[in-house]
Amino acid sequence: MSPVLAGVLQLLALVAALALAYRPLGDHMARVYGSKKHLRAEKWIYKAIGADPDAEMRWPAYLRGVLAFSAAGVLFLYLLQRLQGSLPGSLGFKSIDPDQAFNTAASFVANTNWQSYSGEQAMGHVVQTGGLAVQNFVSAAVGIAVAVALVRGFARSRTGELGNFWADLVRGTVRILLPISVLGALVLVACGALQNFSGIHQVGQFLGGSQQWNGGAVASQEVIKELGTNGGGYFNANSAHPFENPTPFSNLFEIFLILLIPFALTRTFGRMVGSLRQGYAILATMATIWLGFTALMMWTEFHHGGPAFDLAGGATEGKENRFGIAGSAIFSVATTLTSTGAVNSFHSSYTGFGGGIQMLGMQLGEIAPGGTGSGLYGMLILAIIAVFIAGLMVGRTPEYLGKKIGTREIKLAACYILVTPALVLGFTAVAMALPTPGDSMTNTGAHGFSEILYAYTSGANNNGSAFAGLNADTQWFNSTIGLAMLLGRFLPMVFVLALAGSLAEQQPVPKTAGTLRTEKPLFTGLLVGTIMIITGLTYFPALALGPLAEGLAS
After folding, report:
1. Mapping DSSP to helix (H, G, I), strand (E, B) and coil, where does residue 205 land?
2. Among residues 27, 80, 157, 285, which is most buried (max CB within 10 A)?
3. Phi, psi dihedral angles at 202 (to 5 degrees)
4. Residue 321 gets which letter from DSSP?
5. Are strands 399-400 and 209-214 parallel, antiparallel or unpaired?
């Protein structure tokens, strides 16, 4: 069987698995967030934190809950790392330096999981399991909660109430993320992933030196890392490490976990707004972009020119033989079109155009299908922009799901789409202008510029993957990427929740003959075009200096 055919079959199997899970999971999540009942375990949690799960919140109160919980998470994780040297189960590792502890705390709370350290050489069991793994669950639950609040804004009328943040947070963790993670961890253990709390041990002599590995609760952290679109690996090699991702089947299963909730949330959206066809339209937009990017990546990596590539059957540098070019390309697109950031190959080793596809996937806003929650609310914001553009074309007040898109709504949507590009391009420009950050670049020219552009694109878009080659463990990069991650995560949430509150207060307007049918394929095409044009106009100059220049020169 040819490698190309094997890749196509993998992609078809992945699509089939996602299609089978789409309806039951999407309906289950709609029931979870629409239920008035509380499980016994949930009641214990509410009592412990002093929350009233039945109290409705307007958007400022909902936002305060998001920010307060996340701030507490940053502080807790920072202190846990700073005290690691004094904690049991530290495996003898020292406490983490202040700048790196801040970067890591900001990263995991912001659902980014950018890592400027090697996990097996820096973090003990307590920090890995009690700190990082916990944030993998709750940061994903926060993203879903914000998305659900926006959906309620569309579904409700003449009220500013968006639900209860604490109830949404707890339900998302207890009823959705935990059960799937338990089942997924069993699958990964069966595939050969590590799951223990052993210490550091020597595994052999290599080239006159010894190699040491430490154990850990790898499988359980790996599954929520992918399911919650987090991405931080237990080991420095991330999902290329055989302890995290042992076989081609586990590789495909991990891609399935990455895409599972973001795609299924479109059905949840359709259920909650009372129109499944609206959910299918959003799903079609996401799927069109994802399949298009996957096809482009596979074509680029299989058919890039040059004698070395021809002899190897494609661009094999930096890719695991266990997964091959196809398994690496599908994983790469899935992880950069979501906010996952996990890697099973070195993105810096991809062709120039391949690296550009990875960056563009993040720069779209990671919306196809995007992160857990963040992909859905990002796509809905862009749907509002598309409706606004369509309204300008025909001279009609734009409407979406029966809600008028007025001055306030379009200002909030515009602020949302401007925040992340301002962070990415601003920090990249400053880093390239200053003399010190450039010393961290392994390469010069277009590829060196791509290293820094990729780092800030990954941080501000809450992806967390690295281009490799950039030494990000410096005070400059730890601090600025940490700020980019926090601002890139929580500033957009401010605009999303304010928009949700504004929509919830409106009275629905009836459909007329002039109402744009947003459930039709025509709107899906308009939305895809809007996304590509907005991103192209914003990032094309920067991409032209980096991956496009490199690809055209090779």
Report:
1. strand
2. 285
3. -85, 135
4. T
5. unpaired
pLDDT tens-digit readout, 424-460 = 999 999 998 888 877 777 777 888 888 899 999 999 9
- Name the region of 338 (left: φ>0; alpha: ψ -120 to 50; beta: rest): beta
pLDDT value of residue 311:
46
From CA 424, how far away is CA 471, in angstroms rounded?
Answer: 18
Q: pLDDT digit string (tens) for 285-296?
A: 999 999 999 999
Determine what percent of the chain is predicted with pLDDT higher than 90: 71
Q: Per the structure block, which two tokens stand in for 309? A: 């590539």
Q: What percent of the chain is helix, strand and coil (3-state, nearest 5)?
A: 70, 5, 30
**Cβ–Cβ < 8 Å for 466, 455:** yes
pTM, rounded to two decimals: 0.95
Residues with Cβ within 8 Å of residue 393, at least 6 apart in sequence: none
164 phi and psi angles, rounded to 5 deg: -125, 120
Q: What percent of the chain has pLDDT over 70?
A: 96
Long-range contacts of 175-183 (CB under 8 A, 24+ apart): 175/32, 175/39, 176/28, 176/29, 176/32, 176/141, 176/144, 176/261, 177/137, 177/140, 177/141, 177/224, 177/227, 177/228, 178/137, 180/223, 180/227, 180/257, 180/260, 181/137, 181/220, 181/223, 181/224, 181/227
Q: Which residues contact 35 (CB under 8 A, 6 or more apart)?
A: 171
Closest-CA residue to 265 (of 27, 497, 528): 27
Please tell me the distance from the alpha carbon of residue 91 to that of residue 96, in angstroms, as a whole number. Answer: 13
Cα–Cα nearest to 52, from 42, 41, 66: 42
Domain residues for the domain of 470 are: 3-553
Tell me how many domains the chain contains. 1
Of 504, 551, 508, residue with least CA distance to 151? 504
Residue 207 CB neighbour total at 10 angstroms: 5
Rounded to a whole number of angstroms, the CA Rg of the chain reads 23
- What pLDDT was estimated at residue 314? 62
Task: Kindly report which listed range (50-59, 112-121, 369-378, 498-507) carries the lowest average pLDDT score.
Answer: 112-121
DSSP state of 318: T
Phi, psi values for residue 441, rounded to 5°: -80, 130
H-type alpha helices, 55-124: 59-82, 98-109, 119-122
Q: Taking the mean position of all CA atoms in its chain, how far away is CA 236?
A: 19
DSSP state of 212: E
pLDDT in tens, 218-270: 999 999 999 999 999 899 899 999 999 999 999 999 999 999 999 999 999 99
- Tokens linked to 481: 């990427």
Residues 6 or more apart whose Cβ sits within 8 Å of residue 240: 320, 343, 344, 345, 346
Provide CB contacts within 8 A for 461, sequence distance 6+.
339, 362, 363, 365, 366, 420, 424, 488
Distance between CA atoms of 127 and 119, rounded to whole angstroms?
A: 10
Q: How far is CA 252 from CA 113, 187, 188, 236, 332, in A?
A: 21, 12, 11, 20, 12
